[in-house]
Amino acid sequence: MERIAPSVRLEAQIDELLSGGLGADGEHLAELGRLGARLVLQRAVEEEVTAFLGRARYARTPTATGSRNGTRPKPIQTAEGEITIAMPQVRNTAEQFVSRVIPDTKAVVRTRPLEALIIGSYVRGLSDRDIESLIVEAGLGQVSVVQNATHVAGQQNE
């Protein structure tokens, strides 16, 4: 198994997509947008880990503590659909690594435009099931509207 940073893999996917041209249907352009969003987030969390550990990937120092320990997939819900980044894992550190870019939660991370879509649909009178099926049909993943609306309402009351 090759040891290639997830961001380098994403760059290769973008290069491959661009080498074939964007095409006339716009689907390649949408895929380029998703890959670009993934690349920005991936680089951000990789740089957070580098700053947290105080060294680059595979760099060794006498004072180094902690190490990278692979990645785990982290789904992120966006208005364009679900994207997944490779969330770095860190071990043997005095304190736990917590990303400021991507919250450390087992739940799917949602962006504000998706929450706005759900709330807007609710205001327009769509039922919970209608909103959930609309989101699934749009390719935005599986979202519990009731749970999301309760979470957002709780945040607004704070």
Structural notes for this entry:
With 158 residues, the protein is an alpha+beta fold. It has 2 domains: 1-99, no CATH class; 111-158. The protein contains 5 helices and 3 strands. The protein has a 3-stranded mixed beta sheet. The termini are far apart.
Quick recap:
The protein is an alpha+beta fold and 158 residues long. Helices cover 48% and strands 16% of the residues. The chain folds into two domains: 1-99, no CATH class; 111-158.
Please render the helix and strand layout as text:
Layout: H1 6-19, H2 27-53, E1 67-78, E2 81-91, E3 109-110, H3 112-123, H4 128-137, H5 145-157
Parallel strand pairs: 1-3
Antiparallel strand pairs: 1-2
Helix pairs in contact: 1-2
Task: Describe the sheet with the most strands.
Answer: 3 strands, mixed
Total helical segments: 5
**In sequence order, what are the helices and strands, one letter per element?**
HHEEEHHH
Count of domain modules = 2
By DSSP, the count of extended strands is: 3
The stretches of 5 or more residues where confidence is low (pLDDT under 50) are none
Assembly type of the chains comes to single chain
Query: Averaged pLDDT, please?
Result: 79
Strand content: 15-25%
Rg, Å, rounded: 19 Å
Shape: flat
> Structural class, please?
alpha+beta
What is the helix content? 40-55%
